[in-house]
Amino acid sequence: MTDVQLGMPELPAPDYPAEVRTRLEEDAREVIARYPDSRSALLPLLHLVQSEEGHVTRTGMRFCAEVLGLTTAEVTAVATFYTMYRRKPSGDYQVGVCTNTLCAVMGGDAIFEELQSHLGVGNGETTEDGKVTLEHIECNAACDYAPVVMVNWEFFDNQTVESAKALVDELRAGRTVEPTRGAPLCTYKETARILAGFPDARPGAVEAGGSAGPASLVGLRLAKGEVAPGRVVSPRSADAPQDEAPPTHPSSHDAPQRTSASDPHHPAGPVAEEGE
Questions:
Q1: Tens digits of per-residue pLDDT, 180-202?
Q2: H helices of the chain, where?
Q3: Where is this region: Disordered (predicted)?
Q4: Higher-confidence residue: 117 or 238?
Q5: Which domains does the chain have, with CATH numbers?
Q6: What is the spatial distance between Cα 130 and Cα 192, in angstroms, rounded to a whole number?
Q7: 3-state DSSP call for residue 5?
Q8: Phi-psi group of 218: left, alpha or beta (phi > 0 → left; psi -120 to 50 → alpha; rest → beta)
């Protein structure tokens, strides 16, 4: 439920300190120059101000409005529409658990429920140490690696309850965590600056982007007339005995777990409305 504030109207947002404003204006000019119409730069500029404070503040929206010649109402309408823009302070690592259909039945609901208990936070909340913000998210277009967890939009595929708990524990301990695929992990502020369109200057980060994995390319190879590959299995079953008969379930992974919210014997999944 949205908070309703009564009383005096909210005062105009304060400006950035002079040195911050100067630096952001220089970056903003570079972003705006990429577009024939300056207002088209609003989305990357919102990522830019998010990289400064970790979320889009009233000051950040005022900055975007001023450099683009827009009203704060126009900027606010955009910032509140897209979920990638945070509206309140959040952690260094945004841990998003996919709870859309396939990930949910493969264990995503159970992962999300267990992480809430393990971290002591609800949907969209941040741990007391400021390290992790947990939320359930919609499809990440990685159904062939379900269930998927994303950290600052980097993929952690084929997760289980235990591997997801170990992942957030490593993040909170400050240890290096490697995504299943893609670029090395960085903080949420650093991710926001990359999304604003500035180069990722970390050595090897761009090259680490890689391509689609084997599970994603099976259909393409069959369409090209190539010999069908062996059955693609989840890394979770990699240690299974090789002489064991293959399961009858047609999925490329192990059979769905009975953990969806629709199963009365295993209630799971988000219990709060989006944004609560």
A1: 888 889 999 999 999 999 998 88
A2: 18-32, 42-53, 58-68, 72-79, 101-103, 109-119, 161-173, 188-195, 214-223
A3: 229-276
A4: 117
A5: 18-81 (1.10.10.1590), 93-187 (3.40.30.10)
A6: 17
A7: coil
A8: alpha
Are 127 and 92 spatial neighbours (Cβ–Cβ below 8 Å)?
Answer: no
| 221 vs 135 pLDDT, higher one | 135
The arithmetic mean of pLDDT across residues 263-268, rounded, is 50
Query: Which residues touch 75 (CB under 8 Å, ≥6 apart)?
Result: 42, 46, 61, 64, 65, 68
Distance CA 267, CA 187 (A): 33
Q: Could you tell me the sign of the dihedral formed by the alpha carbons of 228, 104, 83, 124, in that order?
A: negative
Alpha-carbon distance 123 to 133, whole Å?
A: 8
13 phi and psi, to 5 degrees?
-65, 145
pTM recorded for the entire structure: 0.73
Q: What are phi and psi of 64, to 5 degrees?
A: -60, -40
Q: What are the CA-CA distances from residue 174 to residues 5, 168, 181, 185, 189 (Å)?
A: 38, 10, 20, 12, 16
Tell me which H or E stretch contains 94.
Answer: strand 93-98
DSSP 256: P
| Banded pLDDT at 245 (limits 50, 70, 90) | low
Q: How far apart are CA 76 and CA 270, in angstroms?
A: 27
Q: Is the pLDDT of residue 99 over 60?
A: yes
Cβ atoms within 10 Å, residue 76: 18
pLDDT band at 222 (very low <50, low <70, confident <90, very high): confident
Closest CA to 256 of 93, 106, 56: 106
